[in-house]
From TrEMBL:
This protein's record includes keyword Metal-binding: no
PANTHER family in alphabetical order: GAMMA TUBULIN COMPLEX COMPONENT C-TERMINAL DOMAIN-CONTAINING PROTEIN (PTHR36220:SF1), UNNAMED PRODUCT (PTHR36220)
Cited SUPFAM superfamilies: Integrin alpha N-terminal domain
Family matches, as SMART domains: Int_alpha
PROSITE patterns linked to this entry: FG_GAP
Keywords in alphabetical order: Glycoprotein, Membrane, Repeat, Signal, Transmembrane, Transmembrane helix
Transmembrane segments: 32-50
Protein name: Integrin-like protein
InterPro entries listed in its UniProt record: FG-GAP, Int_alpha_beta-p, Integrin_alpha_N
Species this protein is from: Planobispora rosea
Matching Pfam families: FG-GAP_2
Amino acid sequence: MEPFRRHRRLTRIDINDAPTVIPTRRRRGPRLWLAATIAAGLVLAGIFLLRAPAVPQPVSGRPTALPAAATPAPLHRITADSSTAGCDWRNTPAGDAHSIWLLGVRRSRIATPAQPVSLLMADLDHDRCSDVVTGLTDGTVMIIWGEKHGSTPTRILRPPSGRGGSAFGRSLTAYRNILAVGAPYDGDPGAPASGAVYVYAFTGRTPGESQRISQNSPGVVGSSEPGDHFGWSLAAGRFPERPGIALAVGAPDENTDGAGAGNGAGAGNGPGVKSAGAMTLLIDPLTDARRSRKYTYAQGAVPGARYGYALAAGNLDEESHLLVGAPGVDAVDVITTHGHRPLEVSDTLLSPQPGVHFGTAVAMADGRAVVGMPQAGDGRGAVSVGLVSPRARPATVLTAPDGHPGDRFGATVTITDSLKLVVGAPGHAGVGAVTLYDLDTLETLDRLAPASGASGFGGVLSDHAPAW
């Protein structure tokens, strides 16, 4: 199956622009919810430059300086009020090296058996309490069931026998009672680390038998090849006016043939465009009618683009959008659909500076998107926020409050159900920090860091699956 024809508009983000308040745009009409997880987020836009489709080149000349950060809000050193999950959708889960913090009206800290690498808030058991799902470095997935009365029951999901070392849990997404777990180091015969996704349908708190999907599965375009890392990123949901569930799967290290339609034959040093990356969109992934489309950056012609490294989706009025990060070329594709129109690449968002890893993290909701560039400013980091509309104002760039080289502000981003933008800076002061902004005004609401006993705080933030 051929990839969609690409009608590309290049939008270059000017990180020297004065900050601009993003006008409020509330949801209307059908909604697409995806997370990667399901992400509600902000839409990144900038100054629109109309060009013929082409491979973007790095901006020549001296790199544009980042704007100076505003007077930093005080950093609040936090402690935990409890060690239970509770039942509050306003919580914002954030991970450190050994635990999960739930940042809400009350602050909880839940110890984990290994370091969290992915986080998701969902309602898998349909009890109207938020469940917290986390992938761990030991190759398991821990589900912390939301409870109104203070207990914290958990369930551990493990990969099938013989699939150890697959990085099971590296990515997570959910739609209603469906949970998808990425295992990018899983392999098919003759294709180690080609990657796979395991999908579970829950009945109450009991998961059904997992269904494994790889690039060798029926209805999936392409084929599994060594080192693709299919399942590195995920997002799932429904498109307005389209039946069935959609599952977007990133494979950032796929070697393309340069034509946008498949893989090169090699495993890193063979034929093909090395680590060009790809994103596969699966429609009805759990049925016999499964079908798919594959997307690549600039027809898969750019080595090291790592297209599909990060995924997020959201809506703007009747249109649905999927963001696909390619941090190797500092770019983010915007894939758009309206009603029954095919999904196509409608825009490409670019950073004016090379090497800032623009697209490492993306989030989107309510017609707005946020894109992290954690290597901007000698690793201080920055985040770009804007509207997806072609007539939007230039994007606003947020820089790290009281930033220092190595903070990596923007390494993680998410948006809460209460429309707060959350940005992680896991390298800050050797401990890590999280900054919360009002999504409408971009005013800083709070800056948080653990009082003691933590490192890498903010290195993983939770996506939010929609309530049923």
